[in-house]
């Protein structure tokens, strides 16, 4: 039998990547400055220029996390790597770990903790809600965990979890606090030291404005003491904070090879962090809040309903919008992509089929992008407000045509009905 495998035809064609506006739940678009950084020469993973970049990323991460923790670095992985690294280092078999679950990310953390042998206890809330201190305290008193896990920005539900007061509570119950900020860091206030968070991690591809591939993480001295006193070794070499903090020169000892970091990704994250440092964290978070407000007002103006009822529980970076009964989400997404090259995400986990999600993060958190996404829906009457000048007869006709168009665009392409409707609607514009 001939075992030769020939060069694949797909690889012999020129590379072509469309330019999309990534307004889903992440990744977000990178700025031209970050894209330029990625076109610079590749460096060796221990070259002085590369380690200099790593040092700059480290101080940038201390800034965005608002921490003086020496053990602050970016592990070579997507956001999941931060979750893995936190659990792998902190959890020993039999440890009671309390995980708050109100969306997919708590569930994922519970799964990961269990794989490291944790006795996982779940504190659950309805998707769309967050946890108050009283409920957290009664769960801590009941379960007496060694670790409490919270997600600051639950991207599957669009919920913001306040963290003030949780750290001191955890100290009172002799428990470590681990926080996921993959979808929130840089877009909302994060005060790692002030809020007494023991381990905090994030991802590079959302507000931080670079591609996926690096997971920022920071450990304080309480977390490091727990790791120091482990009875069993950290079970995965790649996630071991002792080795990684040496490679990132957090311990003051000479750097040693741990793995081959991508200098390209480090350059990109360095630039993403530099952009935030130049803007200033406070201005950056204020920009995200202002964009979220503009989007929420616009969506309400279009007759759409936000999934998260309480205003102060809404995550500024990712907005969840209830799918109206007569809106075909697939048609909406296809329309936005085909006509505006905009990505709009569907729901995830508990919100699948219930919401669509709009992310405004980093380079994409601008008024222009908000206005663009507000006009990117199909002309169904849901993402374009009915004009006051349209009579009820015309409105009825528009609804009929809209339904026709949506059904036909689901089954594929631009049909005569769709064209007719487009022409009809453009005629209605003043
Ligand atoms: N946590 C949260 C809150 C997230 O939003 C995500 C990604 N959407 C992750 C963890 C996992 O990150 P990644 O996909 O980069 O592994």
From TrEMBL:
Reaction(s) catalysed (UniProt annotation): glyoxylate + L-alanine = glycine + pyruvate
InterPro entries noted in UniProt: Aminotrans_V_dom, Aminotrans_V_PyrdxlP_BS, PyrdxlP-dep_Trfase, PyrdxlP-dep_Trfase_major, PyrdxlP-dep_Trfase_small, SP_NH2Trfase/AEP_transaminase
Keyword terms of this UniProt record: Aminotransferase, Pyridoxal phosphate, Transferase
EC number(s) recorded for this UniProt protein: 2.6.1.44
Listed GO CC annotations: peroxisome
CDD domains for this protein: AGAT_like
Binding site for substrate: 357
Cofactors: pyridoxal 5'-phosphate
GO biological process: glycine biosynthetic process, by transamination of glyoxylate; glyoxylate catabolic process
One family name in Pfam for this protein: Aminotran_5
UniProt domain Aminotransferase class V: residue ranges: 43-367
GO MF terms held by the record: alanine-glyoxylate transaminase activity; L-serine-pyruvate transaminase activity
PROSITE patterns, A to Z: AA_TRANSFER_CLASS_5
UniProt KW Transport keyword: no
Modified residues annotated as N6-(pyridoxal phosphate)lysine in this record: 206
Family under the similarity heading: Belongs to the class-V pyridoxal-phosphate-dependent aminotransferase family.
Protein's name in the database: alanine--glyoxylate transaminase
Taxonomic source organism: Timema monikensis
